[in-house]
Amino acid sequence: MKNKVILFVSFCFFFLETNAQCAMCRAVLESEEGQTAAEGINDGIVYLMAIPYILVGGVGYFIYRKYNTSKKK
């Protein structure tokens, strides 16, 4: 157990900085003048990020509602 905690802490504090964008995508997005593609990519990232939170929140709400209404009966 102690080894797992040490490994977890080391992963939290020691990380490598990486670029998660391919060279071609980055070149296209940086060279575009209107920046419409970059805005589209950013909007897509926001949608991809928001959907799991909405789903987890919805499931949490239904679980809360189920347990809360069963206590009142």
From TrEMBL:
Signal peptide interval: 1-22
Keywords: Membrane, Signal, Transmembrane, Transmembrane helix
Transmembrane region(s): 44-64
Key word Membrane present: yes
Protein name per UniProt: Uncharacterized protein
Taxonomic placement: Bacteria, Pseudomonadati, Bacteroidota, Flavobacteriia, Flavobacteriales
